[in-house]
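User: We ran a pulldown and think these components assemble together. Before we commit to crystallization trials, I'd like a predicted model of the whole complex to look at. Sequences follow.
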Amino acid sequence: MISLRNVSKYYPAGFGKIYVLRNITLDINEGEFISIMGPSGSGKSTLLHILGLLEEPSEGEYLFFDQPVQKLSEKRRTDLHRNHIGFVFQAYHLIDELTVYENIETPLLYKGLSSSERKSRVAELLDRFNMVAKKDLFPTQLSGGQQQLVGIARAVAAKPKVIFADEPTGNLHSDQSKEIMELFKRLNQEDGVTIVQVTHSETNAEYGNRILRLKDGWLEPSEVIGSQL
Amino acid sequence: MLRNYLKIALRNLWRNPLYSLLNIGGLAVGLAVSLLVLLFVVHEVTYDRFHTHVDRIFQVYGKMKFGEQEIQMAAMSARFGPAVKAADPDVVDFVRIRKSSDRVVIKTDPEHRDFENRFILADGSLLKVFSFPLLRGNPATALSRPMTVLLTERMARKYFGETDPIGRTLTYDGKLTFEVSGILKDPPSNSTLDFDFVGSLSSHPAVERIRNTIIKDDQVAFFDQSVGMGSYETWFLLRSPEAAGRVARIVPRLVKASGHSTGETKFIFSPLRSVHLGTANFGDTANLRYVYIFLAIALIILGLALINYMSLTTARASKRAKEVGVRKAMGALRRELAAQFYGESFVMTVAAFGLALLLVQLLRPVFFQMLQLRIDDSFLYGPAFLLTILGLLLLCVLLSGSYPAALLSGFRPVSIMKGPFRADRRSVWVRRGFTVLQFAVSLALMVCSLTIGKQLDFMRNRHLGLFKDRVLVLPLDDSRFNTAFRSRVQAQAGVEQVAATSSPLYRNGYSMFFAEAPKTKKQVSLYVMSVDENFFRTLRIPWKISPSEPTRLTTGNTLVLNEVAAREMGIAERPVGRQLQIGGETQEVVGLLKNFNFSSLHSPIQPLAVWVAKDTVRQLNTLYVRLDPKADLRQKVAEIGAVYRSFRFEKPFEYYFLDQAFDALYKAEDRLARMFQAFTAFAVFIAGLGLFGLVTFMAEQRTKEIGIRKVLGASVAGIVALLSKDFLRLILVSVGLASPAAWYIMERWLADFAYRIEPDVRLYVLAGGATLLIALLTVSVQSVRAGLANPVKSLRSE
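Assistant: Here's a predicted model for the assembly, 1027 residues in total across the polymer chains.
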């Protein structure tokens, strides 16, 4: 589904350039749950942004469903964001002026669903995430864990093929973390959503089935969870 | 989708009440002021457009040369209109109008008696050529008989109340009786022809005879058989606008055929459409200039308000950046986000517009009074102004949304995931530019205000060469009681001196005569007035060369000149004893007056000839009463009023003070000064708002920096200085931009005055200082807050 061929990312600095990612070659298949790990500054987030089409690689080729995405127009890229990609952020990034219900509804608006379709989809998600009672609250009235639940509900609302999560539990304490990770696992196993997460925590990484380790912009050989243990 | 945008817009509105108030309030005030100014502008440019035939109506002018001067006159002889109509089939109709230069006293009964100065006489075709609807009466016959009159609605109400005026009579100056034959709708305020009474033109001989009882029939203007200049404004309705040039060309032939020489006189047909703004007239473009000035001011104010709006809106950009990023990551197109921000601007602008319309209603009376405008209510709700409002709304929505939409929708989503939002340098420069512009305009307006005020002061306090304080002026009837009344006033306690002249000073203007300069034989124009012997003493006008035999002053064949006149005539060396040809008579110069300002200080002192008459002469119908400095002015006026009333003059009691009349000459400047003060206050307010927005934005941008500096030991004062320094630089740039602009504009304005102040650096320093102070106060509100903030908070938000 996703394949990177010799992807590098660098920024100009003075007379030279600083490499953030070097020569990454990587394949992700549909239905995988991948954790990207590595020390600070190893390029995890940049890799995630490139995978999520928020940043462009400096070199190399990126195929998303066998389609080279470097040359896509803004319109086509937006189309992928609407229909195939969901994001979950460490700081949740809910829209403060919108209620829980409206936050979840927003991607559906951009997708162009009719009002009744939106209503039933949001109702379904609220029900599934146990948030029906909170649907009219604003994000600031929720705890962090609850906000992240809304963030995930929003990410899956448009039924994406893949969810990119940037340290989704980075701001949460362990109980909440566990709950969120269980949710990701269920989404992966029951709904078949591909998940790529960046995380610092080995525990969280264990929820996935493959770990990519980055060091100084290089990708180390991936380890498959389960088969090794 | 739209509902979602609207919801966000409204929630944003009430979640930040202070910000919303500043933003909507600022825009509303700006809109209200520019709407008011536009109201005036639209009113001016739609002058006379209500006439159905506006494009085909022309007024005829005669232009003639008098020595060096070119004079334009609109009054034609009685035969002019009929002759032109008979000569050319393209002339559909003509209207002759006689405007009275004097006020008349109209009376229906002793309780309804008043001065009226809008009594005109006109042909019945007035109702056909122009579009002044007749509410009562028969348009075909309304003005056909002599001594009939049409009243406007307001006059019908004033003089006849609720009763039916048709067929009733009113007296004109106590001597003539007019019969009311119809009622006209009040002419709109944007009409060049303005009147309250329209008498039939055939009444004119009777009106002339009450002014001049011994006039012979062939001297009565109405019976004048010549074609040429005369006494009647003459308007033509042509078959097509293009015919005007051809019709104008046949006029000289008609003039010649009636036995006159056209000489230097040229006849010009000026379209009604351009009469008011003076585009077709020579010289008189004062109205047009005002329209331009006002239009520029309206646009500047609107621009300031919009810039302020954009500046405040984008100041909150960092708050909105997250939203933009999230929405883009979810698949929002830039176009859709731009639409969303446009939607928000739309909501804000419409709210501001509603508020502005309310403000317009509220401020209208004050504004009109300040500018001494009369604008009909019906005009306010008429299509022309409504279209203006709609156009303005559209423009505002388009402009106010543009920059925020372009800026905010351009944020890249990845930026929000990489730590807190940082505005790019470009947008910082844009808002700096905004601030500089706003302060430059405020500063320029401030300097203009101060300069205009100073020039006004200068003119009012200048020594004029005559004594104008505590001088009561009484315009009288030229009636037989004048002399008796005068001696009664003279006898009053507290009256120092009494004098009389033929025309009131600083009021209407003076008669002009031409005299031949003895040496060069050049025609020199002289202003003339008749005064009594007491005049010079009462107003303390000093002699340059006083008459050697004072008795010769009043012999009837002598005159005195002022210094300028003597110089212009080329007799400054030895003026006394010269014989001058003036008004067809030979007169000897017996004295020379020192120059004094007898008209406004816009122009230098003009040549003046003064005839001195015995104080018993009837033509001296303006009385000057100099009062004792110790006397109570109000009480004296009341006493003199009582004396006046005891004489049973036909005219009601009326007076003014000479110094007030002099001040009133600068009404236009006074108006301009007040307007500039109002605009200055507004511009400063807006600039303050804009700066406030900018500081908020900057402080937000630098939250982290401020936090770190505090942790490292910076004091609150240090932080305030850090934030303020930047803005002070901007203000200095404004000063640099605004000063030369203001200097240039004021130099041009001052050039209109013969007596003027010189540009004063102190005014610029004062304005600059005031601006700096205002800016500092505005900045300090936010920067102190930023300085006092707990660094732990700002650093944790990372």
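The first strand of chain B starts at residue 57 and ends at 66. That may be worth checking against your pulldown data before setting up trials.

User: Thanks, that helps.
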